[in-house]
Amino acid sequence: MAISWLVPIHDTPEDWLKLCLTSILVEMQDGDECICIDDGSQNRNTIFALEQYCDLNPRFRLKRIANNLGVAKALNIGLEMVANEYIARLDADDWNISGRIQKQMAWWNDNPADLIGCDMIAHNDDGKTSLIECHQEKWNEKLLRSYQPICFHPTWLIETRVMSGLGGYPVTYPHAEDFALQCQMFKEGHTFTNCPEVLVNKRQHANRMSNRYRDIQRDSATRALKDFLK
Q1: Domains defined along the chain, listed by start
Q2: How far apart (Å, rounded) are the C-alpha atoms in residues 93 and 156?
Q3: Which residues contact 65 (CB under 8 A, 6 or more apart)?
Q4: Would you give per-residue pLDDT tens digits along the chain (230 residues)?
Q5: What angle do CA 147, 38, 124 make, to 5 degrees?
Q6: Is the pTM of this model over 0.90?
């Protein structure tokens, strides 16, 4: 079993980026890789830190995109580079809790599904933390129509064959590509599970995409529900 990590990056602060990538490095086993997709970064510190990290760690592969395309298109470019059986996701401003993959895989073995997630801890700008708990109930259309994500995007672990069969991320739902893909998966009969442990640290800062583009995200999610769950 080998994993390809997918990390889209756009002007992520240097310290945050290094923490993210280091938390992936300690999870890696033989044959694993990390595909870093630089989605048009302009911050020189980000670019230098990313290039330096990938130069020092041969299992980290860097794909530079000249212009900012957005998360969905950047991830789809990364998907074309995947060489392994499984894909793990992490956002560049978040970081793993040690043992994430081992614990997710152990849960997955006992709870087979097409997509697995886990709980997260939110780290707020004011220094406070809070639990972001995943859902354990059986998923249904009613839950999706309340805009509940099935599995939190930074915690995803999925087989490459499943992601390829879906055609990658839909690109017409800006800032809600993960929710749209889960709607598609639900429509096509795919199954989901969540490891009920906190395995990812999520940085809740004012500059997160979900904060900056909340109205666009809501519109995209509404359209995804309409398009996939007619």
Answers
A1: 3-228 (3.90.550.10)
A2: 15
A3: 37, 38, 39, 40, 74, 77
A4: 899 999 999 999 999 999 999 999 999 999 999 999 999 999 999 999 999 999 999 999 999 999 999 999 999 999 999 999 999 999 999 999 999 999 999 999 999 999 999 999 999 988 899 999 987 777 788 888 888 889 999 999 999 999 999 999 999 999 999 999 999 999 999 999 999 999 999 999 776 666 677 899 999 999 999 999 88
A5: 50
A6: yes
